[in-house]
Amino acid sequence: METQEETVVQPSAQEGQALPGVNPPLWTANFILICLSTIATFFAFHSLIPTLPIYIQQFGGGPGVAGLALGSLTLAAVMIRPVTGWALDNYGRKPIYLGGLLIFLLVTVIFTWMIPVAVLVALRFVQGIGWGVLNTASTTIASDIVPLHRMGEGIGFFSLTASISLAIAPGISLWIINSFSFPVLFITSAALVLFAILLALPIRYPLTEKQAAPFRFIILEKTALQPATVILFYTFTYSSVLSFLPIFVLEQGLVSSGIFLSAIALTTLITRPLSGLTVDRWGRGGYNLIMLSGILATLLAIPILSQTTAMAHLTAGGIL
Fold first, then answer.
1. Is residue 199 part of a domain?
2. Cα distances (angstroms) measured from residue 288 to each of 105, 154, 159, 195, 283
3. Does residue 216 surpass a pLDDT of 50?
4. Which of the residues 4, 82, 89, 220 could staple to 211 if both were Cys, CB 3.0 to 4.6 A apart?
5. Is 167 in contact with 260 (CB distance < 8 Å)?
6. E-assigned strands of the chain?
7. Whether residue 168 has pLDDT greater than 90
8. 309 is in which domain, residue-wise?
């Protein structure tokens, strides 16, 4: 039975649920589509990380303005996530995902007009709303599609979409602005988001039942408090590095910060699938092991990056 927005699928046939004695596959058409759509979006997102600080500096903005540009996006994404979770449960996954993609696309198109730095910072806040919506929605869609008995493995593979783009997009984006111009970069990013929308349209998604709880109760989920707090403090550090490292690297006389992002991505390509399998095998104990290992590695990376004078320092910091 078809609706205007989503396809109703009988519970026994839904992806992520298994019939008795049957293990549903991980790599279904829907899972592949959401992975491809997400990687296209991350390509667009990661292409702006090392280049926007350079754009801001070239047009009269200092490091503080570059930090403000990323901070405004991050703030908007954080603020919109609780509302997005409630909307996903009440209005369906796919429409919310497409809405976030459209917001991100429209702002990226406006960037091609070479707008003033102050306007760019304001638009990054709007883009952050789209980013928070689409990122939350895509992860929710993937977790719904992945079979329960392979949840850690499936989400690990899905998370590789960000790692793959992080390994490739920064280098390509820096090459584009050096060989062509910033408008060409923005047009390329917009085209990638449009491609992500086209990939998302064929996804057949089960109709979700609306939740009865009002929004004010949905956001007070006590079980999410501990992991959310860990992620909050970790993200403060990570976003600070991403904001100021491109400018810091140029001041040190190095070529670019692309090697740092590529090192992060290549390391993540190896560790993400292993992390998912660890969580599937050992449960909460595996989760705690992964979290503590990641935090300790970050603590080692920060001093190395702060003393960067060579590409080897960037590589080591990225690996950690």
1. yes
2. 37, 19, 18, 37, 9
3. yes
4. 89
5. no
6. none
7. no
8. 26-319
pLDDT of 153 above 60: yes
- Vertex 185 angle, CA 189 and 314, to 5°: 95
- Structure-block tokens of residue 134: 């689409």
Of all residues in the chain, the percent with pLDDT exceeding 90 is 27
User: Which region, left, alpha or beta, applies to residue 16 given φ > 0 means left and ψ of -120 to 50 means alpha?
Assistant: left
Total structural domains in the chain?
Answer: 1
Residue range 83-126, pLDDT digits in tens? 998 899 888 899 999 999 999 999 999 998 878 888 888 999 99
Q: Tens digits of per-residue pLDDT, 256-286?
A: 666 777 787 778 777 777 776 776 677 677 7
Question: Which of 200, 167, 169, 195 lies closest to 272 in space, CA to CA?
Answer: 167
The answer to whether residue 14 is domain-embedded is no
- Residue 16 domain-assigned (yes or no): no
Say if 30 falls within a structural domain.
yes
Listed residue (110, 112, 104, 143) closest to 26, CA to CA: 143
Q: Which of 296, 295, 301, 303 is nearest to 316 (CA)?
A: 301
